[in-house]
């Protein structure tokens, strides 16, 4: 009798376990069917609590498929993703136009490439001192080859221009991907924000190539020095971002110092170029665009650090208008200003005689 009772008890416990397992499976199935919800700041795990002034509409640890599809839905990262995706498309368009014979860029940038005092500029030489600007600073990019013959037979290489465009595209697409996928898990958060910062480093490095290459085309040693220096500093920054041993808090100031070194290192070659070619109006025009770029980046940094305007009214700018979105727009505008400055320098260089003519400087 006791054996029969024990057997009955065992059977009932097995049945209970099976029923409990089935209930769990049904609950899991129902949960999977439910669409992941947006969360408030207080509901987030600590590693996702970055900006306490953005109060709602967070994605948190969603499945990868839902995260990928969220690029088309509305949440507090939507505009962060799309502002840099649109920027990416802009620079892809520039790349395509540079590789084809389309000249629509002339109309697109006409307002930027021709200063208001155009009549005064029309008295400049073709060597950069008097005569005229060519029709547009952007006209040279319609040549589909990497080597375009301009002016009096001088060949202006286009690969530094493509290096800049490539760096800008890498930075912008890394940023968009990071804002899209970083919410998936703690591991993803660490990886994608490192990827984002490495994209910034790559863009800074690549931004130097075109203006330095064209400005110092007749000073090869200076050109090599500037490009080598910024490349080495940029590689060091990327290493510190991804090396596990260099991710602790005590190295944050070191990484910040490297970023500052990369940013301010552009002042030195710019000052050098102005000292050499201050009597060339195109160089001064390019400098104006570069100053505009610096001011746009600085303004973006101010919004990024102060977290204005959401700090002023928490919760009011969760979806539209918060500081990181403004920062993204200013970054794209700054990169665009730099592209115009580069085109000015390219156009100036193509109107000059070869270096061995002894006219530069």
From TrEMBL:
| GO cellular component entries | membrane
InterPro entries assigned to the protein according to its UniProt record, in alphabetical order: AdipoR/HlyIII-related
GO molecular function annotation: metal ion binding; signaling receptor activity
Q: How does it sit in the membrane?
A: Multi-pass membrane protein
Location in the cell reads: Membrane
Ordered alphabetically, the record's keywords are:
Membrane, Metal-binding, Transmembrane, Transmembrane helix, Zinc
**Keyword Lipid metabolism recorded:** no
What are the binding positions for Zn(2+) in this chain? 179, 324, 328
Q: Where is this region: Disordered?
A: 1-22
Say yes or no: keyword Zinc-finger present: no
| Record field: compositional bias (Basic and acidic residues) | 13-22
Listed GO biological process terms:
response to hormone; response to sucrose
* Highest taxon above the source species: Eukaryota
A Pfam short name: HlyIII
Any stretches that span the bilayer, and where are they? Answer: 79-99, 158-183, 195-216, 222-244, 256-278, 284-305, 326-346
Protein name as catalogued: Heptahelical transmembrane protein 2-like
Which organism is this entry from?
Answer: Anisodus acutangulus
Q: What lineage, starting at the top, does this entry show? A: Eukaryota, Viridiplantae, Streptophyta, Embryophyta, Tracheophyta
């Amino acid at each position: 009798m006791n054996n029969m009772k024990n057997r009955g008890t065992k059977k009932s416990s097995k049945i209970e376990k099976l029923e409990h397992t089935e209930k769990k499976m049904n609950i899991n199935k129902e949960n999977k069917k439910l669409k992941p919800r947006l969360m408030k700041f207080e509901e987030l795990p600590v590693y996702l609590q970055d900006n306490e002034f953005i109060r709602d509409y967070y994605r948190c640890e969603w499945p990868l498929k839902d995260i990928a599809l969220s690029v088309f839905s509305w949440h507090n990262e939507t505009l962060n993703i799309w502002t840099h995706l649109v920027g990416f498309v802009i620079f892809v368009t520039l790349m395509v136009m540079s590789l084809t014979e389309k000249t629509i860029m002339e109309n697109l940038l006409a307002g930027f490439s021709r200063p208001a005092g155009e009549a005064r500029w029309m008295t400049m030489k073709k060597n950069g001192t008097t005569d005229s600007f060519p029709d547009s600073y952007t006209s040279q990019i319609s040549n589909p080859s990497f080597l375009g013959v301009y002016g009096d037979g001088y060949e202006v290489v286009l690969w530094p221009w493509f290096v800049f465009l490539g760096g800008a595209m890498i930075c912008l697409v890394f940023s968009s991907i990071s804002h899209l996928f970083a919410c998936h898990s703690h591991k993803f958060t660490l990886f994608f924000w490192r990827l984002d910062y490495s994209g910034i480093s790559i863009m800074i490095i690549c931004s130097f190539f075109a203006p330095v290459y064209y400005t110092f085309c007749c000073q090869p040693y200076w050109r090599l020095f500037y490009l080598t220096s910024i490349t080495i500093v940029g590689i060091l920054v990327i290493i510190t971002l991804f090396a596990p041993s260099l991710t602790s808090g005590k190295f944050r100031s070191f990484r910040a110092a490297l970023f500052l070194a990369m940013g301010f290192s552009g002042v030195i070659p710019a000052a050098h170029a102005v000292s050499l070619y201050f009597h060339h109006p195109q160089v001064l025009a390019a400098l104006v665009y570069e100053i505009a770029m610096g001011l746009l980046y600085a303004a973006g940094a101010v919004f990024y650090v102060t977290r204005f305007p959401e700090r002023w009214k928490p919760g009011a700018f969760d979806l539209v208008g918060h500081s990181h979105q403004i920062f993204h727009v200013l970054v794209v505008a700054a990169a665009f200003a730099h592209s115009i400055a580069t085109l000015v320098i390219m156009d100036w260089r193509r109107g000059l005689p070869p270096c061995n003519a002894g006219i530069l400087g």
